[in-house]
Amino acid sequence: MSARILVADDNTASRELVREVLEMSGYDVVEAADGLEAVAKARETTPDLLLVDIQMPHLDGYGVLRELRADPRLAALHVVALTAFAMQGDRERAMDAGFDGYISKPVNLAALREEIRRFI
Predict the structure, then answer these.
(1) What is the pLDDT of residue 90?
(2) CB atoms within 10 A of CB 78
(3) What are 102's strand-pairing partners?
(4) Burial tier of 70 (Cβ tally within 10 Å: 0-12, 13-18, 19+)
(5) pLDDT at site 75
(6) Taking a C-beta distance cutoff of 8 angstroms, is the pair 47, 30 a contact?
(7) Which residue among 41, 67, 98, 113 is the one 20 to 30 A from 73 at the CA level?
(8) Residues 6, 12: contact at Cβ < 8 Å?
(9) Strand ranges (DSSP E) for 9-109?
(10) What is the C-alpha separation between 119 and 82, in angstroms, rounded?
C-alpha cells in the first residue's frame, strides 16, 4: 500500500501540479482547497504526511497545524509548509511554529521529493 499524502492549497494549479508529481511517484494523494477542509480530510483519511500552504482561506496553515497538534490521533502527523512565503525569516518562523519541514513556491520538484523522503 502506498503512502497517503494530503495536499492542502487554495491555489488549484499549484495543488494539481504537486498532486501529479506525487501520483507519478506512486503516492496516494488527497486534496484540500482550504484550511478547514484540510483538517477535516486529515481526520477522515489519516494521511502519512500533510503538505499545507500557509496562506489559505477559512483557516491558514498555522491554524491547521494547531488543530492537528491538538488532536491526539493526528498530533504526530508530519506537516510540511508549502508556501510562497519565502522571505528571510519565513522558514524559521514556520519551523519555530512546529512545522516539520518547509518548501517554498514555486515548487522545486527535487526539493519536494527530498522533503517527502525525509518523512516517508
Answers:
(1) 83
(2) 18
(3) 81
(4) exposed
(5) 97
(6) yes
(7) 113
(8) no
(9) 28-32, 49-52, 78-83, 101-104
(10) 15
- 4-8 and 78-83 strand pairing: unpaired
Give the model's pLDDT for residue 1: 64
The CA R_g of the chain, rounded to the nearest whole Å, is 13
**Residue 108 backbone class (left: φ over 0; alpha: ψ -120 to 50; beta: rest):** beta
pLDDT-based confidence at residue 86 (cuts at 50, 70, 90): low
pLDDT in tens, 43-80: 999 999 999 999 999 999 999 999 999 999 999 999 99
Summarize the confidence of residues 102-111 as an average pLDDT: 88
Q: Which strands form 101-104's sheet, in the order they lie side by side? A: 28-32, 4-8, 49-52, 78-83, 101-104
The β-bridge relationship of strands 101-104 and 28-32 is: unpaired
Stated pTM of the model: 0.93
Which cell goes with 11? 491555489
Residue 41, pLDDT > 70, answer yes
* Rounded distance between C-alpha atoms, residue 16 and residue 88, angstroms: 27
